[in-house]
Hints:
Protein name: Na+/H+ antiporter
Pfam family, one: Na_H_antiport_3
Helix content: over 70%
Shape: globular
Order of helices and strands: HHHHHHHHHHHHHHHHHHHHHHH
Number of strands: 0
Number of helices: 23
Organism: Bdellovibrio reynosensis
Keywords: Membrane, Transmembrane, Transmembrane helix
Amino acid sequence: MQYSQIEILGTVFFFLAVIHTFLVGRFTHWAHHYPKHSMRHGILHLFGEIEVVFAIWAAAFMALFIALQGWQEAINYQTSLNFTEPFFIFVIMVLCSTRPILTAARQGIQFVSSLIQKTFKTPAVHTDLAVILVLGPLAGSFITEPAAMTVTAFMLNATLQKESKNLIYALLAVLFVNVSIGGALTPFAAPPILMVASKWNWDFAFVFSNLGWKSAIAVVINSLGLIFFFRREFAQSCITLKEVETRLQGGQAKTPAGVILLHLVFLAMVVITGHYQNAFLGIFLLFLGVATVTKAYQDNLRLKESLLVAMFLGGIIQFGAFQKWWLAPLLSSLNDLFLFSGAVALTAITDNAALTYLGSQVESLSDSSKYALVAGAIAGGGLTIIANAPNAAGYNILSNKFPKGLSPLHLLAAALAPTAVAVFCLWIL
């Protein structure tokens, strides 16, 4: 097989970006050696922001692309890319982080949690956390994984008042794994499944019967296991959703039901049009006007944070086409077990949706190999921040819990246990 120079360079720059993600903590540490407002501090601090890593390397690669192949070729390549997913995640993050949407989510989770507490006499804090970690990710099968990640991460951020290093990494790992597999109840919500569902004729019944119920079991096991092993830390570090609601109501105007309903309608419209960029961006522009009118019931819109996450995903997409030359032959050469295991491992260094998309281009895959590829891709979606597109959104929301920045190695270590549960459920059950 012949590989072009630009394909090899695309792979080299991609892996340099992957390596950079594991070094962001070092860049942040080095930045502190220089005066806060100096240029060196600013540059090193920028290199320590995990959301901009792929954008930086993508910009460097495109500059080299232009130098080697010319401006027109670079423009042609850019226009061939599909940035619908980054735009969608930007819109859904802004929308789901609004006060009315979060209020509706908290009240719904609190209602379910209260029923469980009254029925089984379970502790309030632990029950709230269990319901958040189970229902939040599973809701991703209907409201999409990015929306589920945003809402769930915000609720966890509100309940967690103090944390240890081990606790916060374990919590983030379970959140990432649960969201990655929690969208597998339907064929339209999890990006790795969405990429192949139409081409392989995977309908709702097929996805739920082969992936969905197994994923739901894994979500429950991961959530209850986390709460059991860290039950004392959670009891000392968290407050209940009822307490969160009480504190918020003390300093905010009560959000009218009509405003909440209007925001839920906008959320539904964005989810329904999620595959049509022009449509959901138009709806979002209309929503910005509504947000201005209802500003008495709004917090500051998370535009900057959402743009950073979108930029992170856009950077990954820049490199996607240049990984086909080595990924497609590799995937087609593996038997089912090795394909499943390989997909879990490869997901740690490349977005799982890109992995399944490339797999869908391999015409020789059997039905069992198709299952192995997709199951492995969603099982490994919590190993790193780049493994699953919504992970960047979850980390961005919880980044205040990581004063020294995220350590990818610590996240990888913490994610091994919940990933093993997902692997067992998706391969053995």
